Amino acid sequence: MAAEVLSTHQKALSLNLDHKIYGTLAEIGAAQEVARWLFRVGGAAGSIAKTMSAYDMTVSDEIYGRAGRYVSRARVEAMLDKEYSLLIKRLRSERTDTRFFAFANTVSARNFSGTNECHGWVGLRFQAEPGGAPNTVILHVNMLDETTLQQQEALGILGINLIYGAFMDPNGPLAGLDTLSDNLAHGSIEVDVADLDGPLFEEVDPARTGMAMIRSGLADVILFDREGKQRPPSEIVRKRPMIIKRTSTRYSSVIDSRAFEAAGKKLVQEVTDLADKPLNITEFSINSVHASGGSAPEKNLNHLRALVAQEEWVMLTRLRQSYKLTSYLRRYSNQPVRFVMGASTFAMLLSEKFYVDSTGGLLEATGKLYADAVRIYVQPMSPEDCRSHLASVELAPDWVSFPSDTDVTLNNLRFSGPTRLLHHYLLEAGWVEELD
């Protein structure tokens, strides 16, 4: 039986009533939304040493030092450094039985005109035991609600979940990541970076925390750089051309560098005025339609770790179909996007079977997948591999055919029924091409 989810009121009150948890809250950008919860439920004197909100940039710089950007990881880390060190300096000798914390956020909530990107950085530095070395959690959040008030409420709930999980989750602080979404409306907030540091998290790697965010539903996408660190997609893919190759646990975890190289050359020849060098990303969806019913969590995690270990860009997602990835990427970049896939995967894109959860079915999905400047490069594959892949997802054998004595390519696939017309249309429109 699943454990009862405590309300935000219950969590905030529990923190206030534990007088051995004590800290500072510094919040910039939306309102003092996390502190407000602690004040709202009563007994805040039991948990709050100080709250503050330095909105003026000059005032903020005087307190935390000059910043290139005020809504940034560097700024939230400076806030944590300052507030935690002051707290320890002032109160450590007086409260020897207390676990101290500093909570900070710097966010860009919806402005009056509704024209800004609504996102922010949230941080918590805390002691697991009195006098212990500090542990730090840094989150990057995207606020998706349409009104400032809704964004404030969502950020407040997230902050209380974070503090409560760090101190009071019965399964420990790491398990608290799984409860960050408690009491949040689906689609109100996104957490696409979760970085943990300190004695409590010595055995925790970015792959594990990324998987926790995806599993909890707080993120659709987590992006790992070549060093295996999580990076905000909004900062990395913005205005970048991209080459995407999807993978699943069915396949080898070796990143296909030759396919990326060939696709890069083809894209440069095709689009001579690219704004930047294409970013090569291997995307791994734990919810792919090609995953034959899904995989065990540990298998997914091991596959992700193997990908990240190859020091290339890796995108972990929970997006089921490719067209949903197109929609996500178009939030940040209108530059050319090229998907690289085998002939069997391309064939699956044309099956109605994989769009039963889309109101518009195959045609809607096709329209969204091939957005402006989005194309597919199709790799040849052996007939044996193609047949095995199609059989693994139980596609009818008479729905698509191909030669058995040569490689299966984009051009020698033969579809039955009206699908053959869609195949011809995609070819003639130039939306799909062979990749040599």
What keywords describe this structure?
436 residues; alpha/beta; Maf protein; 2 domains; eight-stranded mixed β-sheet; six-stranded mixed β-sheet; 16 strands
Characterization of the model:
This protein is an alpha/beta fold. It folds into two domains: about 10-220, Alpha-Beta Complex (Maf protein), CATH 3.90.950.20; about 235-435, no CATH class. The protein is about 35% helix and about 20% strand. It has 14 helices and 16 strands. The chain has helices at about 10-15, 35-40, 55-65, 75-90, 150-170, 205-215, 235, 255-270, 295-310, 320-330, 345-350, 360-370, 385-390, 420-430; strands at about 20-30, 50, 100-110, 120-125, 135-145, 190-195, 220-225, 230, 240-245, 280-285, 315, 335-340, 375-380, 400, 415, 430-435. The strands form three sheets. Strands 8-7-11-10-9-12-13-16 form an eight-stranded mixed β-sheet. α2 (about 35-40) crosses α5 (about 150-170) and α10 packs parallel to α12. It is elongated, with a radius of gyration of 24 Å.
Provide the gyration radius in Å. 24 Å
Which spans have pLDDT < 50 for at least 5 consecutive residues? none
Which sheet architecture does the biggest sheet show?
Answer: 8 strands, mixed
Task: Note the total helix count.
Answer: 14
CATH class of the largest domain: Alpha Beta
Strand count: 16
CATH architecture of the largest domain: Alpha-Beta Complex
Output the strand order for the largest sheet. 8-7-11-10-9-12-13-16
SSE order: HEHEHHEEEHEHEEHEHEHEHEHHEHEEHE
For the termini, the CA-CA separation is 53 Å
Q: State mean pLDDT (0 to 100 scale).
A: 92
| Whole-number tally of structural domains | 2
Helix share, percent = 25-40%
CATH topology of the largest domain: Maf protein
The name of the CATH superfamily of the largest domain reads CinA-like
* Backbone structural class: alpha/beta
Beta-strand level of the residues, as a percent range?
15-25%
* Overall geometry: elongated
